[in-house]
Amino acid sequence: MARKILLVDDEEGIRKVLSISLEDSGYQVFSAKSGEEALDLFREIKPPIVLTDIKMPGMDGIQLLRRVKEDAPDTEVIMITGHGDMGLAIQSLKFDATDFITKPINDEALEIALKRANERIYLRKQLREYTENLERLVEEKTKQLLEAERLAAVGQTVAGLAHTIKNIASGLTGGGFVLEKGIELNQRQYLINGWQMIRGNVERIKRMALDLLNFAKQREPDYQLCDPNAPLKEVLQLMLPRSQEYGVELQLESDDRLPKAWFDPEAIQACILDLTTNAIDACIDFNCASGTRTVLLRSRQSDGWAVEYRVEDNGCGMDDDTKARVFQNFFSTKGSQGTGLGLMITKKIVDEHGGAITFESEKGKGTKFIIKLPLRAGATEEARKNES
After folding, report:
1. What does 270-310 look like in DSSP terms, one character per residue?
2. How far apart are the C-alpha atoms of 329 and 139, rounded to whole Å?
């Protein structure tokens, strides 16, 4: 298909001669005798190249150039100028004209100018195609990368799950062996030990199944306007008997000035309960338990947040390797007693709230977990209304 070109000149003779020459070169020529007529025609046919005289009555060539560039910046505009108009020709280049040729028009000069315009059109097309291909390539590679990461995550999860199930199966096998020995030797203590091993591992399977269900559950938090200290107080009551059983001091320091906040009370209580359980376990670990062991539950105000919870212990603390893996699937330092899912679920719940969970830990000195829950729009005003 012939390439369109718009020829603009107020001299009919020039339009006729140039039209013949351009058509011989394979162009489909549209002509206009003024800038105004040319602009209307340009908007109708949208030619990639405009060849225009500079000096014309009414809208001159430079004004036409600027209007064309406003409508279609990629249009190539070649200016035609007479001798003595060199200043105007140079000025047109400042407005992004492709080139200029002088009257009387030399065929060779016109051919060079058109060649330059066509090269610019070709290069722009190539650049556009290259950019589109590059964007498509980036999109495809991104999808492949995400799929690879998903598969890697699935593989990691399956491997962790298999490892945990294998440990539980080993525990059950060991318990069965001790139980059989107790029956064979008629040893009551063997029977008791074997049964405790089996019961412990069955309980572990139950916890792991519940944790997996909780982790897989996709749900929005059940936001309620609550006393931020309520989850701490409930966890204190729940865990106090266990802490006393193992000689761990469980303390509460709540900030009673905290206003009510929007959060899912059941989910946040589960988070604090998990962190408190871990803190007590860290205090009763026989590898490092000595002196007075304390777990402190705290609430406080924090700039830009609705509430900040802290669960602090002076137990074993974590080494660098443990700290690096603390939120990793199925990672646990509790051996046969842990499922490696608790902290992962806690982080998931905090993330669902749009909150943040961080920790500080030093081997031999203890650990501090910090949960921050965000302010929710309108929560403060509604809390004030509810309290009034």
Report:
1. HHHHHHHHHHHHHHS-TTT--S-EEEEEEEEEETTEEEEEE
2. 29
The pLDDT confidence band at residue 213, using thresholds 50, 70 and 90, is confident
pTM above 0.70, yes or no: no
d(CA 303, CA 220): 25
CB 336 within 8 A of CB 204: yes
Bridge partners for 302 per DSSP: 305
The residue behind tokens 């890697």 is 152
DSSP string, 158-176: HHHHHHHHHHHHHHHHHHH
pLDDT at residue 263, as a whole number: 94
CA angle 277, 278, 279 (to 5 degrees): 90
**Is residue 100 a contact partner of residue 80, using CB atoms and an 8 Å limit?**
yes
C-alpha torsion sign, points 303, 309, 314, 319: negative
Q: In what order do the strands lie in the sheet with 99-102?
A: 27-32, 3-8, 49-53, 76-81, 99-102
DSSP string, 92-161: HHHTT--EEEESSPPHHHHHHHHHHHHHHHHHHHHHHHHHHHHHHHHHHHHHHHHHHHHHHHHHHHHHHH
With tokens 């998931």, the residue in question is 348
Neighbouring CB atoms inside 10 A of 293's CB total: 24
Query: Which among 312, 323, 301 is positioned nearest to 279, based on CA atoms?
Result: 312
In the predicted structure, residue 228 carries a pLDDT above the cut 80 = yes
For the chain, the 3-state helix, strand and coil shares in percent, each to the nearest 5, are 55, 20, 25
**CA pseudo-torsion sign 254, 255, 257, 260:** negative
118 and 106 in contact (C-beta within 8 Å)?
A: no
Cβ-proximal residues to 353 (8 Å cutoff; 6+ apart), any chain: 221, 263, 264, 267, 268, 373, 374
Q: How many CB atoms lie within 10 A of CB 279?
A: 27
Average pLDDT, the chain: 86
pLDDT computed for residue 384 by the predictor:
52
